[in-house]
Amino acid sequence: MGEKNLKISIAHLYPKLLNLYGDIGNIITLKKRCEWRDIDVEFEEINLGDKLNQHDIYFVGGGQDKQQEEVAEELYHNKDFLTDERDRNAVFLGICGGYQLFGHYYQPHDKDRLLGISLMDAYTVAGDKRFIGNVTAQIDFLTPNTLVGFENHSGLTYLQGETKPLATVVVGNGNNGRDKTEGARFKNVFGTYLHGSFLPKNPHFADYLIELALEKRYGEKIQLSSLDDRIENETHSSLIGKAY
Ligand code: GLN
Known about the structure:
Strand content: 25-35%
Bound molecules: glutamine
Shape: globular
Mean pLDDT: 96
Structural class: alpha/beta
Largest sheet: 6 strands, mixed
Strand order of the largest sheet: 2-1-3-4-12-11
Distance between the termini: 44 Å
Helix content: 25-40%
């Protein structure tokens, strides 16, 4: 199927609250990498109180605990809808605080537990220190087999059951600074601690998400055409192995 006839719909959930370290760059990357291929993009920004409509890709950025509290309550009200979307193979990408809310809960130090929407079998508890710095992680199912980004979180995330790590930490801390895992995946739900923003520096992962979303929409695997990613790849390579 020619890319000119393809369409994809993307929802950015609660950007006014969860958009730390320019996480909106992930939306820009998804949009641009579709538009550069003449793939039609429908985009919807969802804010507190808005009704959720069906989309191919849902994105949730990161943020401080206060903003996370506001979004957690709203996401929880939409838990059944979003679970149905997960089971319809919609693609989800959560960054840091957004990722934490994809699990069962986020337990801050001295506050009430924030209930997550359990799209993944994972949970997060506040740690005693903040993990701040660059991360390099190895990802087994993509070429290049690396992901790079910037982490800033105190939350320690632990994966259970069929929820598997997205990547293995080479430099940095990742999910909890102990088990060398970074991020998570269950079905087409992905979470990562990599800010920066994440997708501009990892174009291969952006294309992977777009291909999954197209497969969900059209019911067949669609391999995207190549783009001139020299700048993106130079940026990616320049960060591999760098801690600060
Ligand atoms: N408040 C959460 C934590 O500190 C998430 C932070 C973030 O999204 N960068 O772990």
